[in-house]
Specification:
Blueprint (H helix, E strand, L loop, with lengths): L8 H34 L2 H25 L11 H14 L3 H18 L3 H12 L19 H4 L15 H19 L2 H8 L9 H22 L1
Helix pairs in contact: 1-2, 3-4, 3-9, 4-5, 4-7, 5-9, 7-8, 8-9
Length: 229
């Protein structure tokens, strides 16, 4: 099977700059060679020095362009100790690698801060709804980590996003957290909000809310154990 190497856009720009400048360098080098022969025959030392400066100039430009075009790595989002403890628990319970969970937890932490929702509540909802399977889809069409309904919540997607964005883990958590926030606000509290989020507002036993809150409690305990250790 053949493979194709795809360079990042920044590297492609650097390659283009280097290629163009290399062409210019070769042209200047050819000119220098011809004029150098003339200078040697004429014994003109000053002309020799000027020609050497012409040769070194393109090399300096190439180095400067390469440095300018080098992309700056984005800082890794650091999870707080509470979220790190929960991540370790989720990785073991749901058999998902910590590398795959990192962006999900980072998004939950950021969105929770912005929307004033406990990020562990978001993570607990994900565990109950999809078991951390980003491609999960219910019989009624709810999709992704938080089982968002595309037909109902399309308005919460970014402007440039398409229908498949609901299967993107980060986007799904961002949208799902907004839906959860609205449900909590409309129902006057976390338990009522969770029941509406699950489409089970009429359940007097509030079984869905109990399940999510129990999972959240297990995450809290895992985080405490990590800090105690």
């Amino acid at each position: 099977m053949s493979t194709t190497t795809i360079l990042p856009p920044a590297m492609l720009r650097v390659s283009s700059v280097v290629y163009v400048l290399a062409q210019k360098f070769l042209m200047v080098a050819g000119l220098v060679f011809v004029m150098g022969l003339i200078a040697l025959q004429a014994g003109n030392a000053g002309l020799n020095d000027w020609l050497k400066s012409l040769v070194s100039a393109p090399e300096a430009v190439v180095a400067e362009e390469a440095i300018t075009e080098t992309p700056v790595e984005e800082a890794t989002v650091l999870l707080n100790p509470r979220m790190r403890g929960a991540l370790d628990y989720v990785s073991r319970r749901y058999h998902v690698s910590t590398d795959a969970l990192q962006p999900i937890f980072a998004t939950a932490q950021a969105v929770g801060r912005d929307l004033h929702i406990d990020p562990l509540l978001i993570i607990a909802v994900i565990g109950v709804e999809s078991g951390f399977n980003p491609f999960s889809q219910s019989v009624v069409g709810a999709q992704g980590l938080m089982q968002v309904m595309p037909g109902i919540h399309k308005d919460k997607l970014p402007d440039e996003a398409d229908q498949l964005a609901f299967l993107d883990p980060v986007t799904n958590v961002q949208v799902g957290a907004k839906v959860l926030k609205e449900s909590i606000r409309r129902n006057g509290g976390v338990e009522g909000g969770l029941q509406q989020f699950a489409g089970a507002a009429n359940d007097p036993d509030r079984r869905y809310a109990s399940k999510v809150l129990a999972e959240k409690q297990r995450m809290e305990q895992a985080a405490l154990r990590l800090r105690a250790g």
